[in-house]
Amino acid sequence: MSALSEPALAQRNQPPLDQYEPVYLTAAEGAFVMAAVARIIPSDGDGPGAIEARVPVFIDRQLAGDFGAASDLYMEGPFAPGADMNLGTQSPLTPAEIYRQGIAAFDAWCRSEQGAAFGDLDPDAQDAALQALADDAVGLKPELREFWTLLLQNTKEGYFADPRHGGNAGMQAWVYIGFPGARANFHEWAGRDEAYPLGPVDIAGERA
């Protein structure tokens, strides 16, 4: 058996999610992300939930890296946060800053409207709060109006991305949808009305 690569070893040696030490999120912010992604992709569905896929780890790492710092975005002013969303990103804040301020503002709204921070609400109340956030009914300032879009986008990315990025633990999401991952050649199966017979392979060469 060949030796595991460093990325594969890192994936295999992950601590339990409740023992993960965030690199960007504070403890309170991490608790919010855990609670929010658990409602976006819940654990009681047919497949693995966001918690089982370790989506919070993916989000934390992304916010601590180039994505969170907006390294690939033009961040020179002038900014027009209230402009039409079709004009693209107009916030002067980086994604990491949008998360930090967005979580604080949303938790404050939850306390005012629901009587508790988001993570302390029951699941039905959390769903209602997230729906209000998605409907732009929370009253976030224009600089933060991308908060819901980013949270939803990053949850999906963490669920389906290669495990080397922290989420999709054990390639569970790929197994669930029958995605072959980084296999070099499976084109002969495209279009067949039958399940692909082999499990996925990640970029590090690990098999599910």
Keywords:
208 residues; mainly alpha; 0% strand
What this model shows, in words?
The model is unreliable at 1-5 (pLDDT under 50). The chain is globular and about 50 Å long. It contains 7 helices and no strands. It has 208 residues and is mainly α. The protein has helices at 6-12, 27-40, 55-64, 95-114, 123-134, 147-160, 172-177. Helix 2 crosses helix 5 and helix 3 (55-64) crosses helix 6 (147-160).
Radius of gyration from CA coordinates: 19 Å
Straight-line distance between termini: 16 Å
Mean pLDDT: 90
Category by helix and strand content: mainly alpha
Q: Compute the number of strand runs.
A: 0
- Main pleated sheet: none
What fraction, in percent, of the residue positions are helical? 25-40%
The ordered H/E elements are HHHHHHH
Low-confidence stretches: 1-5
Instruction: Describe the global form.
Output: globular
Strand content: under 5%
Specify the number of helices. 7
Topology at a glance:
Layout: H1 6-12, H2 27-40, H3 55-64, H4 95-114, H5 123-134, H6 147-160, H7 172-177
Helix pairs in contact: 2-3, 2-5, 3-6
Q: In brief, what are we looking at here?
A:
Helix content is 40%, strand content 0%. It has 208 residues and is mainly α.
